[in-house]
Design a protein that fits this description.
Helices cover 32% and strands 26% of the residues. The chain is α+β, with helices and mostly antiparallel strands.
């Protein structure tokens, strides 16, 4: 059987890798439109290894983050990829956040996390001397990793097992017959089974293949600042806020990077291009698709205050700094240098709800991964196993 994986981000790479590990006789083709692997979500995130603290017990995100971080650490060890299970703290800075912090502790325990600790003020300062907080949870299993290096190692492993990886191969269409015919700008390919892991473009690729799920990708850009070198001592590892359940995003936080430095962010603003990493990036097609989607307007009318605050914070370094000062009061505006940005491929339903869990859709001789935002990078190898389990019968044939 010949299987084509569309998309060379970390989920597509992990799926190809696990398929060749589990079914080594499979003929595997991976097509990626960029010149190399992991050029979008996988290579433009903060590099955190998420162990499953936040996610609803029993959800795919909770299950696969807990198992996925073990698989990812094992992969990094075997392939000499830099990682560090440095731990993080989640900090309650106001009294009203403490009940939510305790609920988070219960959720993490239910998800099977080990070594969680509830900390009081002085205990917080022992771990993060410059962090503010009334109480906090210490999460020792959390860590940081070099995801671009993970992506490169996966490409090497796929090729070593006989898989074919083709870059600069954007899929432009499909033709269904006895086999799939996959059209790209440079060549046509055939396959018996398709796995769509195209992230920011997964809904479009899905529709090209004849699947018309109503969920649509609405891209949100997350912008980062970096702490200037002389002020990086303010953060030792990872400092996160207690998420507010009234809002769909986590909030800005601090992350130590695996090769040095500290990032602060991200916010969450509507991206005017699915690959829009700069404020000035604009795609007419992408913008029109978002702004004419009724789900987006229902989302906006549900969270007008949050959307406005996120936009203002995007335009104001002072407001961004003020949000960060809730976690580290000693931080100053002058401590922040411009960082990078990532774009989150977030599936949204027509009623305005963000699709919260990983979301796979089966089609005859195909499977589409239609929602795989964070913690998908951490959980990518476990997600791959889930994909293969879902498509087991078709792949066995």
């Amino acid at each position: 059987m010949k299987v084509a994986v569309i998309g060379g981000g970390i989920v597509g790479l992990a799926t190809a890798h696990q398929l060749l590990c589990r079914l080594p006789s499979t003929e595997l083709l991976l097509l990626e439109k960029e010149e190399g692997p992991g050029r979008h979500q996988s290579g433009n995130n903060s590099g955190v290894l998420h162990c499953g603290l936040y996610y609803k017990p029993g959800s795919a995100k909770a299950r696969l983050a807990v198992t996925g971080i073990r698989s990812m650490v094992d992969f990094c060890q075997k392939n000499h990829v830099a990682y560090d299970l440095c731990g993080k703290i989640v900090v309650a800075t106001e009294a009203e956040e403490i009940p939510r912090l305790h609920s988070l502790l219960e959720r993490g325990t239910a998800n099977g996390l080990l070594g969680l600790q509830l900390l009081k003020g002085e205990q917080i300062r022992e771990i993060e001397p410059h962090a503010a907080g009334l109480e906090a949870i210490r999460v020792p299993q959390e860590g940081i990793v070099d995801y671009p290096a993970v992506s490169q190692a996966m490409v090497a492993a796929i090729r070593a097992r006989g898989g074919e990886v083709r870059f600069c191969s954007e899929v432009t269409g499909f033709r269904q017959g006895p086999r799939w015919v996959i059209h790209t700008h440079s060549a046509d390919y055939e396959a018996d089974f398709l796995i769509n892991c195209t992230g920011l473009h997964c809904d479009r690729v899905s529709r090209m293949a004849g699947n018309h799920d109503p969920a649509k990708i609405v891209p949100f850009r997350g912008e980062y600042y970096k702490l200037k070198p002389e002020r990086q001592y303010l953060v030792k590892n990872l400092i996160y806020p207690v998420p507010d359940p009234k809002f769909p995003f986590l909030g800005v936080h601090f992350t130590r990077l695996i090769h040095g430095g500290v990032e602060a962010g991200p916010n969450a603003v509507l991206a005017l291009a699915r690959e829009g990493y700069r404020k000035t990036d604009f795609s007419l097609r992408d913008t029109v698709e978002s702004l004419t989607y009724r789900g987006f307007w229902k989302f906006f009318l549900r969270y007008p205050s949050m959307c406005w605050q996120e936009l203002k914070r995007s335009m104001s370094k002072e407001l961004f700094c003020r949000s960060l000062q809730r976690l580290v009061p000693d931080l100053r505006v002058d401590d922040l240098a411009q960082g990078g940005a990532g774009v989150r491929a977030q599936a949204m339903s027509p009623n305005g709800d963000l699709v919260q869990d990983f979301y796979f859709v089966r089609q005859t001789r195909a499977l589409h991964v239609l929602n795989a935002p964070s913690p998908a990078a951490t959980a990518s190898l476990a997600i791959a196993d889930e994909i293969l389990d879902t498509a087991r019968e078709a792949l066995a044939g």
